[in-house]
Amino acid sequence: MQVEPFEILGWARWLCLIGCFIGAAWLDHNFRRIPNSYWLAWAKPAIFLWILELLVVEADWTVWGSAAAAVALASTAVIGRPTLADFRSGNPVDVAVIIWYVFGAAGVIGGAMIHGSTNTPMDIIVGTADPMAKLWWASVSVLVQVWLFDVMWRMRLLHGGADAKALMLVAILIPTWATIAPIVQGESWGRLGVHIPPAFALLIWGSLAFLTIPIIFTIWNAAKGNITSAADMRLAWHSTRMPLDKVADAHVWLLDEVIEKADGTTAVHTRIRAPARTPSDEKLQAQIAALKELGVEVGWVTYKWPLLAILLPAILPLIIWGDPFALLLAPLLA
């Protein structure tokens, strides 16, 4: 049986995505941070696979330039932005980066003049766009995705820089569905002219996976006997009980605290939501000590869920069904 080049690229991308996210989730869980060197290491196979795809489809220079622009923009999240002062210093690396930027800008502008003026996004939707124009628009869409993830990071819509860098890497690793069509393709998949980019599809699947957490926590707390009153139901869907001796070493927020009442006595108060700012180690130890003085040994905690831990299992439905909106629109297109 002959194996098509796109099929090889597709499976290589899946393996790269899974390997990258497993390693990132492990680093995030054990060290609470992911160094930039990790993203630089995984960017190499991601860019290499994109280069192979562009070679297979014989992309023109505007497509190459637009792809270079997307990679250049993503690199600023890891190595920073070069300046004219860096260029004047004559450092070979800085000069190469500036040239890379110029080539990327030329690809975007040149592609807009050559392809964008005669092939609009609507032409792609209805299926009348030229193949090379579709490739150029696909490269530009990666550039837009990288920019959006950067904006979401700076606006705190994505809490950590690692989350934004991970999604940028997905956008570069899997720019389109051309090489990684989902395993299960309904009739709606072929009827849709365009699909949600894989990076955003992964984010949507991750959001859907996040919605299962309240159900899981409620069942878990019920099985552990943590729900003893109606008031506990306010907490059982997003938090659980943990021995205070384990709180300091766990990746959690402690919801219980000691407060002073109007009559001068003290009592235990349980927050519904996590604190706006993570307390320092000293404040956390003082909070735990105050609870122990009142005889409390077990407290309510809520976990600090990193987005990467949610996105990792979301890869499975991405592989099986691909674009979630294709499933949503299936009844309408039947």
Tell me about the largest β-sheet.
3 strands, antiparallel
| Neighbour order of strands in the largest sheet | 1-5-2
Mean pLDDT: 88
Shape: elongated
Number of separate strands = 5
- DSSP summary: helix tally: 17
In the residues, how many domains can be counted?
A: 2
What class would the helix/strand composition place it in?
Answer: mainly alpha
Low-confidence stretches: none
Radius of gyration: 25 Å
How would you describe the oligomerization state of the chains in this entry? single chain
User: Distance between termini?
Assistant: 33 Å
Order of helices and strands: HHHHHHHHHHHHEHEEEHEHHH
Please bin the fraction of helical residues. Answer: 55-70%
Beta content comes to 5-15%
Q: What characteristics describe this protein?
A:
mainly alpha; two-stranded antiparallel ribbon; elongated; 2 domains; 334 residues
Give a concise summary.
The protein has 334 residues and is mostly helical. The chain has 17 helices and five strands.
Tell me about this structure.
This protein is mainly alpha-helical. It folds into two domains: 5-180, no CATH class; 213-303, no CATH class. It has 17 helices and five strands. The protein has helices at residues 5-31, 36-56, 61-79, 84-89, 92-116, 121-126, 131-154, 161-173, 187-191, 198-210, 213-224, 233-236, 244-247, 281-293, 307-321, 324-328, 330-333, and strands at 240-243, 252-254, 256-260, 266-270, 298-303. It has a three-stranded antiparallel beta sheet with strand order 1-5-2. A two-stranded antiparallel sheet has the order 3-4. Strand 3 (256-260) and strand 4 (266-270) form a beta hairpin. Helix 2 runs parallel beside helix 8 (161-173) and helix 3 packs antiparallel against helix 8. The longest helix is centred in the first third of the chain and has 27 residues, at 5-31. The protein is elongated. The model has no long low-confidence stretch (mean pLDDT 88).
